[in-house]
Predict the structure.
Amino acid sequence: MQPLANITPIKPAARAGAVQLGGVGLVYKTSGQDVVAVSDVSIEVKPGRFAVLVGPSGCGKSSLLMMMAGLRHQTSGAISINGAPIEVPDPDRVGVVFQEPSLFPWLTAEENVEFPLTLRGVSKQERRAKAEEALQLVGLDGFGKRHPHELSGGMKQRVSIARGLVQDPPVLLMDEPFAALDEQTRMTMGDELLRIWAATGKTIVFVTHSLTEAVYLADEVIVMSARPGRIVDRLEVALPRPRTFEMLSGDAFGSLRDRIWRHIRKSA
Amino acid sequence: MSSTMLRRLIVISLIVLWEVLPRIGVIPELFLPSLSSTLLAGWNQAGEYGHALVVTLYEVAIGMVIACGGGILAGAVVGSLPRPRLLIMPMVSSLYAVPLVILYPVFTVWLGIGSESKIAFAGMYGFLPTMLATSAGIQTIDPQLLLAARSMGATLSQRVTRVVIPAAIPTVLSGLRVGGALVIVGVVVSEMLISSAGIGYLISRYRTILDSQHVFAGVLLVLAMAIAFNAMIKFVERRAAVWQTGTRAGPDMIAREIPAAATA
Amino acid sequence: MKSSLAVKATRFVIVAMVFAVWELLSRTGMINPRLLPSASDTIVTLADLLGRPGVRSDILVTGAEVLTAFVIAVPFGALVGLLIAESRYFAEVAKPLLFFAFSIPKSIFLPMFILVFGVGFAQKVGFGFFSTIFIVIMSTTTAVESVKPENLMVARSYGATPAQTVWRVYLPSMLPVLLEALRISMIFNLTGVMLAEMYASREGMGHLIANWGENFMMRQLLAGVLMVAIIAVSFNELVRWVETRCSHWRT
């Protein structure tokens, strides 16, 4: 792992934005019954911070992320990103990385990264340059011409991250992006993400159900309970950065993880 | 011996047998004229066959526009709307069990024995499978891709042109292959049944005067047409779908190919 | 359950509406009733036809041809398919050839059957067999391939005899695919026989239909088409019903 000081941010004036949720609730109807998926969630993530949402499956953490991305509508409360409410997907403010890499199989890695720019009619030259930069950032230099089926799972997810970053949004939302990867790749990708985060200075909201991953990555961990999904705890992770593999077996790490585990066991 | 070599050997010996067996009289020339005499018969009447080919190709072309254009359009609509899909698709595939050839007489009563009835019949013949294939293809589009596009701010029309259409191309092509093959068969069969022009008509006419060589020359011509069409679509498929993973063969291959073979 | 009932009801309504529109088009004279006799007239004609001994014997002839071709083609095709699937080498050799045979139009070979067999029963059965055999072979090999190696491994590790393996592993695994094959083979078979009868024949449903068409007897023609369609769809739905009953463990 490289020490932080050696990394020069590629964008000197890094864009980072605040994420604010006030009293957000989500109720949906299924055959006459109202199901409360998310109830009264208030969160504030300051610019440049790495926040992780954890909780048992079905706690609405992914729904919450979809609402922050403008892909779903909350039924109550307000969500604002960078100081303005978010109602429809706004790639200028929010980049999204999904659990499945969701790459278009008919496009090359490079074209996939360019895709958001293509949608907005950015010139070919500029697109290429930005995609190259983003691919370089995620460590995929020289893989741009490959199609997704020629890439490994970890590489695909890197492309997906590059795509989330290519428009330089202040906020990056990640929905269990490493859940489909094997344990080794998952650890490597965690370190890679921290490196990318340090280099770009984005605000990241990251959803996971892995407690270790949550504590390892986060500045703060937000713990949710299931049915209805609500916030039961918030923890500051005061572990120094850069995070290292050795910390995983330390007492500080263990006690943080245990505290989250107790919450989750209670609500599961 | 490698399997490919043995296969080539089989094919070559079949061709040789086709030439030799009729010549030495093991198979009567009436049942199966030798390959060379068939080709020669075709060559001697090249003008007649060429003229018939033009008629048949014209009917096939228009039939294809109806079957494939209509089938792809209808399949795309039905496939992308969950409710009609649930309602209609099982009915359409039940309809598939009906030997559609029995409808050809109806078309001849309505449209006469000229090209119109062939075009209408072949168009209908190829329509259903193309529609089924396209509808199935639209359904297999990963909803996650649409979600991802939406998160990047794609508008509805951008989602259709940049996600739905490219993702549907492979299935639409296989629908085209199936439907197109059926259109060719539909045209030839209807020409064989009742008509006054086209290759099917030639086959039937030479059959009634027991001129096997000319019958087989016609059969070979239709075969060549079907194979050429198939090769053409495969070529396009390969060019359009370089990004596809894995092999195309599998259990669902039969399901995909069945309509193509429903050629009777 | 409730929604599936609603779906069935809606489908019934759609079919009823097709018939209603048909009736209306003809009754109001929007389409000349001589070109499109009304649905009710057609159904009455159908009942009348079914009462005639001549028509009944034609139905029996077609039924006999279809069944004979089916009974020959299915076991024969299944056997060939099994043999091919059993040996990997043989499968590699044969598959592309079969696939080719499978994908070329069969109907253009119909004249050959007339040249060889004349226009009688043997020709119809022969052509029905020819139309069906390739699909049976292909489906059988697919069915064998659908047996999961891990299931065979389990059976072997618990000491199953070959008979037990066939009975307890092969057959249940293959059943859904085999039923599907049976259904589709029948479609091909029926289509083949109908075409053969329409092309050149002295008896059978196909012969009647072609004849009615040539003589512009629209009422009888449509009644005949309706009858064949009902028979075909009924058989299809019957096998499908058995399929869903036998393969509830899939999905």
Remarks:
- The CA atoms of residues 98 and 134 of chain C lie 7 Å apart.
- The longest helix of chain C spans residues 162-199.
